[in-house]
Amino acid sequence: MPNKRHARKTHRDAARLASAGNHRTALTGYHRAAAEYRAHLKTHGGDDAARGELAELLEHIADAEHALGDHARGAAALTERLVHLRELDRPRTLIAVAELDLAEAHLRAGHLLSAAVRGDDAVRSYDRRDAADPASSEFGHLAAALARNARILHRTADPDLAVGAADQAARMILAMPDEIEDTARLDYLRDVLGLAVELHTAAGRAAYARSAASLLAKHFPDAGPAAAVGGPPLTLRAALTAAGRLGAFADANLIDRLCPDPVAHDAPPAVSARCDPGLAPVALHAVAVAVDDLRSSHPALAWRMATEIHYLLSAADREGERNLRLNFRDHGPVWLGMLMALTDAVARRPNLAADLAGVLAELLERLRSRHAADGVLVAAAMKFIEVYGPRRLLRRGGPRCAARRCRYAVRCSSAQACMASRR
Fold first, then answer.
1. Rounded CA separation 196/200 (Å)
2. For the chain, what is the radius of gyration of the CA atoms?
3. Do the beta carbons of residue 115 and residue 106 sit within 8 Å?
4. Are the C-beta atoms of 306 and 291 separated by less than 8 Å?
């Protein structure tokens, strides 16, 4: 019989081992304790205390996995942790922080698609109306979330979104009262100012780069020189413009609607702030053909266009965008085809391939639940999932998919592995 008291003792003993640096042995104890908690919750699902203890334990498991360099398993632990925190109906701010923890774990694991979507989930959950007063805790929480998401966007998404997030986070942190002493706040400020210098410089916005560099030097005199940058970063605007020159994309008006000025005061700091969610399915049909046309000849352009539209569609679907939901039989297969155009680009990157497999599994589940999952493309997606799916990277430990009815109930390294687990 599962025993909570024994689980707590096992957890404490493992924590002592981890604090001494013996993470591998600690993991054995952690997983044994987690199994006890899961078994207990199967028959006592309403035991919130046990569920909270398991959520804390899963955070410790993730820390140990990261210490050992196994970031995919760390992300799997944080995915399960987030499920339990939602079950406990924890405050929105705590959930957002947990989502950012998971997004950063995905980033370390090379799960770029999941990192971007999770980061946007977190930022989108904040109510901007509650963050109007620089002296309020909500203002500080949002500033920190934007700063963390700026780093995620820098690695995973449109550089124009990353610089928008960095600039806004810097403005917010600098607006906070000086009497608020917070080491993390200063770390975030240093990070976002450095990021702003790098991105503005790379984009040729010399005046903005000098302004950010001046603030960095003022607040952090010991800061080193900005990292050397290469050519202009590939933004969504640049990718769409290039696709237009190549004859693969013809809707010039859509570019301005999808790509606001990244240095405007109201520049979008997140994927979900890019445009009205109703534009997402329109953009899908305009861009999907270009992605397919350029997937072999210009893979970088195809990747930027496809991933940005995927992020936008994911945000719109989470927000319940009416056209996307009601007409998913029209939009879903096109979405799937656009993502399948990326499979060649990830075949030699196992972690990213596993991440894409998880994203495809989620999308197939949506297609199946909305009666649109048939055809050759679906079969190709299922084959890709079978070959590259997350279970190939997770042979031990970690939770199984929370939705037992999902045919893709594997040991998921992707936060996107199964939509059913969030219904």
1. 6
2. 22
3. yes
4. yes
Residue located via tokens 């003792």: 9
CB 380 within 8 A of CB 371: no
DSSP class of 400: B
What angle is formed at CA 142 by the lines to CA 275 and CA 418, rounded to 5 degrees? 65
Q: What is the DSSP code (8-state) at residue 394?
A: -
Q: What is the pLDDT of residue 349?
A: 92
Strand partners for 411: 400
| Beta carbons of 344 and 150 less than 8 angstroms apart | no
Q: What letter represents residue 133's amino acid? A: D
CB 121 within 8 A of CB 312: no
Enter the tokens of residue 199.
Answer: 């991105």
CA–CA dist 169, 183 (Å, integer)? 15
Structure confidence at residue 126 (pLDDT): 87
Sorted by sequence, the CB contacts under 8 Å of residue 416 that are 6+ apart come out as 113, 114, 117, 355, 358, 359, 361, 362
Residues of the chain with pLDDT under 50: 393-423
Question: What is residue 375's predicted lDDT score, i.e. its pLDDT?
Answer: 84
Distance CA 116, CA 124 (A): 12
Q: How far apart are CA 190 and CA 184, in angstroms?
A: 10
Q: Residues near 39 by Cβ (< 8 Å), separated by ≥ 6?
A: 2
DSSP 220-251: -TT--PPPP--S----HHHHHHHHHHTTS---
For residue 162, give the nearest of 62, 213, 234 by alpha carbon: 234
State residue 225's pLDDT score: 67
Q: In sequence order, which residues have a C-beta less than 8 Å from that of residue 74 and are 6 or more positions away? A: 61, 62, 63, 65, 66, 105, 108, 109
**223 — alpha (psi -120 to 50), left (phi > 0) or beta?**
beta
